[in-house]
Amino acid sequence: PYKLLLDCDPGLDDALALLLAHGDPNIELVGITTVGGNVALQNTTRNALQLREYLKFPKVPVSAGAAGPLTRTFRDAAHVHGASGLGNVVLPEATLAVTGIHAVDAIIELITATPGTIHLVATGPLTNIALALEKEPAIARWAASFTIMGGSSTRGNATAAAEFNIWADPEAARIVFDADWRVTMIGLDLTLQAQANSIVIDRMKKLGALADELIVPLSTFYFNPNVPDWDGQAVHDVCAVAYVARPDLFDCRLARVDIETTGEFTTGMTVVDFDSPSPNALVATKLDVSGFWAYVETVYARVAAE
Ligand code: BDR
Ligand code: CA
Fold this sequence. Notes:
Elements (H helix, E strand, L loop, with lengths): L1 E7 L3 H12 L3 E8 L6 H14 L7 E3 L13 H4 L21 H11 L4 E5 L4 H9 L3 H4 L2 E5 L14 H5 L1 H9 L4 E4 L1 H4 L3 E2 L1 H7 L4 H12 L12 E2 L1 H10 L4 E10 L10 E4 L7 E7 L1 H16 L2
Parallel strand pairs: 1-2, 1-4, 2-3, 4-5, 5-6, 6-11
Antiparallel strand pairs: 7-8, 9-10, 9-11
Helix pairs in contact: 1-11, 1-12, 1-13, 4-5, 5-8
């Protein structure tokens, strides 16, 4: 199986991504690190701990990381994910705690312990990853792959130009894209193709308690049928985990991605040049939508049957 380390800010779709990473037998979840993003670090960490116990993988270490961006003031997305970060899902209090290790050190330790084997996936602001790169630049070469949910080559969601995870900490994103690895960017262009529409939700509803308690509420909490082009809520972060196990479901193109950090209207924008002679990223463009849902539903059904 692919050893996967997930840096996240749960977060409705982060929680769904965690469920996929846990449930796919071709993925071995080796660690979870948390960052402040959708909600404050305290809440993203609590959510990760609660999900770990609810889904029964107590041995996977959870380490808390950066509470806010490198230089800017913290701005959350509680208007999307709810005050807790998990919408209206209420999970039992966790009994197990975080490791005593900071997420930045956990990332470095896990990757350097077995170079070339850890697939690093980031589904929140890139603060922890940037700090880890500054402390140990070699992780860029030692990670087996690095995939983010973030950015876009067309439009934003936090602003007209910027996607939330990049907008939340553009300075960190710039460090991450400039590091000695090739970033796989699963941005909005891709993830807006992964909308949990009513057909998907109806199939998920057959999965019993896991669907009632977790999958359906997480996948529908902020769906707004009045937004044009929204057939269902997009499960952004699930796509980034799916890419590690099922890259065959994604069309990608090499590109140069630079991060705008000073634009009046464009701060946090990923400037994507598909014609650049010096690409630093693989940008996902097209999803095999039916293949994606077949894969996700199979994994979720497996967890539901546990
Ligand atoms: C990204 O922003 C967050 O709100 C989601 O969890 C996802 O990682 C989508 O832009
Ligand atoms: Ca996220």
